[in-house]
From TrEMBL, chain A:
Region of interest (Disordered), residue spans: 1-24
Polar residues bias locations: 1-10
UniProt protein name: Tripartite tricarboxylate transporter TctB family protein
Coiled-coil features, chain-numbered ranges: none
InterPro entries (UniProt xref): DUF1468 (IPR009936)
Ranges of residues in domain DUF1468: 39-180
Organism phylogeny: Bacteria, Bacillati, Actinomycetota, Actinomycetes, Micrococcales
Automatic annotation (TrEMBL), chain B:
Keyword terms of this UniProt record: Membrane, Transmembrane, Transmembrane helix
Pfam families according to UniProt: TctA
Record organism: Kocuria carniphila
Protein name: Tripartite tricarboxylate transporter permease
Transmembrane portions of the chain: 20-39, 45-73, 109-135, 147-163, 170-191, 203-228, 321-340, 360-381, 393-409, 467-489
Record-linked InterPro entries: DUF112_TM
Residue ranges of every copy of the DUF112 domain listed in the record: 20-442
Amino acid sequence: MSHASVSESSAPAPRADSERPVDRSSRSAGSLLQALTMPLVLAAFATYLLVGMLMMEVPDSVDFPGPRFFPAIITGVIYVLVVVEVINIFRHWSSGSLGTTDDAAPATFSWRSLVWVIGGFLAFALLLEFLGWILGAALLFWCVARGFGSKRPLFSLIVGLTVSSIAYIAFDMALGLSLPSGLLGGGF
Amino acid sequence: METLSLLMEGFAGALTWQNLFWVVLGCFLGTAVGVMPGLGSSMAVALLLPVTFALEPTAAFIMFSGVYFGGLFGDSTMGILMNTPGQASAIASTFEGHKMALNGRAPQALATAAIGAFVGGFIASGVVVFLAPFLAEFSTQFGPAEFFALALFAFMATSSVVTDSAVKGLLSLAFGLGIAVVGIDGVTGIPRFTMDSPFLFDGISLVTVTVAVLALGEVIYFATIARFQREGQMIRSKGRPWLSKKELREAAPAWARGTAIGLPFGVIPAGGSEIPTFLAYGAERKLDRRRHDPQFGKGAIRGLAAPEAAGNSTTGMAMGALLALGLPISATAAIMLAAFRQYGLQPGPLLFERAPDLVWALLASFFIAMIVLLIINLPFAMVWAKLLLIPRHYLYAGITVFCGLGIYATSGSTFDLLLLLGVGIVGFLMRMHDYPLAPLIIGMVLGPLAETSLRDALISANGDASVLVQGPIVLTLYGLLAVVLLLTLRSKITSRTRRDT
């Protein structure tokens, strides 16, 4: 799925570039922080690997390329590349071109949608075994639809319950996957 | 002739009512997901991966091949009508294809694409049938050093050839490799990076990561960012959905050339059908320049026919390479490999001996899938476009529910759902900052193979690293890799001037 990067650079997506303010504060601290999220995540991951390697107990009898060998290469590569990427980002940032290249930083970002979708999924994951599939999945459906700006909450709830019930019938009853019945368990 | 009789047995296995049902269902589902703007064939395969575990292996893989090829057909339909290719491999087709549609030749463009995809896929399937057993036999000569070279080839090619930024591609790859080392070490049995949590002893499930980055991350991305971006208008396709004799004569050589360009890329681990589609497009464009009245830029039928045929012939060959060598050349093939492993099957030379029924029925189902897809796509492309009437918020809500369903049904644990969310968020961040996702999947699938073969090779040579660059096969692979990297560099420099406007 590398189409994101490729499609937008080689095929001109019909987008309203002209409507976007040109000097959209691309030198603000916020845009710098946003650009640095991925390097930070990756550096954290590499640190997790590093700590794991230091804590690992390897008996002396293990031959040379032991269990730490390959992870050590990966960790090193991630650290080096993160540094390169961070230098890149700072260079773009100081020249003011950060985020102005095509689509690195999106024009609109909806925090509200982010909270609805992620929060909805979190609730679904934690409550699934208690609520059961039909109610849990309907809740997830409703939250995501809400995150996508659905205006009719009651109608969404009905659609969500229908979808989750059909999925329950098709996959649990017909195909034999096991989905929790939860609260409604007594009734089925 | 032994091959033919085996293939006939395969057809006998695939043509039972039950299996026919699964291949047709797969074709329908794949086309449906592919038609959705922005949703590609790899997302279709990722979403359906967990669900197919409820089926027996043969039925599951037959359905998979339908989904896979169906997604490719659907991708190009929307690329032509709306200029929104669902997958990188459909981009080259949209240049001339969308122009044809703009000029009122949408039905002919759709027909050209469908027939091209059919021709490419059908010929490739034929080649695979005869080549796969040889490939499988050839690969029995492979030792650890050869497998390491192959994996390295796939890593470099997918992370730096197909992507815009080599740094981001390599980071994505390293992240995938890093996720793959979590769990008990296969060589020594020592638990690694598990924080002593039993949930992590078996490692992080590839299925979870795939669904997380390809489906859930995409949903979050669409909810927060992509839905605010303006979309192209869909062009309605009216008129005769077939080609005139003149158009057929025009397109036929392009289909043939496209297929020929696509075939070799199916066995080169260079990230799937993106490169061959662009090569085929470029070749047609060069030929077009020599004609009296160049058609490119005005909706040239050849500029659509060639990449479509190339894309599907690569995909078809890629399935052969996956079955015979156990080597996935694209993210979608990597997901298929994961599916094989879930059933306890290891694609590669031994698969042809251990599970011939499955292999030959699967190969036979490629042909069936191609025919089914031609039938459901050629006359009914506009019917598929009706799927766009589903409101966006319900479509994506449904996809999210499906992600949860698949992961919970295969793992049965809340932990995996939380992991799905966590990785999904990282996938969303990667998508937002233009990190390619395919290298992550390839890294996760081939990481263990690369690690074990590297360590096996080194241990058996007492730590002497020169063992990694000995032998004709290994040297050929590294030579080929060098050539591919050089060619990429060249094409990256020239690609900016390649398009007609």
